[in-house]
Specification:
The chain is an alpha/beta fold and 129 residues long. It has one domain: Rossmann fold. 55% of the residues lie in helices and 12% in strands. Strand 4, helix 7 and strand 5 form a beta-alpha-beta unit.
């Protein structure tokens, strides 16, 4: 099982060439095994960035999410209140609530986390790029 952070999700779905070769390889394996997860908080983050004009998906957020929901290898994990509690309990000084929630999900699932973010990779030992 792998969890994609928000940027990895965007690159996996829209610009696979932007993934590192290692990230692309692990995504392909997980796709074949139907073992890719994302946190629903990533959808929230993407929607915010699109609304603020910081991200152009080329389609509406609703259509993008609709397409995500059709990907058989992908599970969109809703953020459960226990995940939020776990994110607060992480022994990590990082303050970004989205990153903390994604790390908490990966921890809960005992999953590899695909992220380019060095701060996350330094904290979460099962993170790759």
């Amino acid at each position: 099982m792998i969890v994609l952070d928000t940027c990895a999700l965007l690159w996996w779905t829209l610009e696979p060439a932007s993934l590192s070769s290692k990230a692309l390889e692990i995504c392909k394996k997980a796709e074949s095994a139907k073992e890719i997860a994302i946190s629903s908080i990533s959808i929230w983050e993407i929607a915010l960035k699109a609304k603020q004009g910081k991200l152009d998906l080329g389609i509406s957020i609703e259509k993008y999410v609709g397409l995500l929901e059709k990907v058989e290898s992908l599970t969109i994990e809703p953020v459960h209140h226990n995940t939020f509690i776990k994110s607060v309990g992480l022994s990590w000084e990082h303050r970004d609530p989205v990153d903390r929630t994604i790390v908490a999900l990966a921890t809960k699932l005992h999953a590899t986390l695909v992220t380019k973010d060095k701060i996350i990779r330094q904290f979460y030992k099962k993170a790759i790029w």
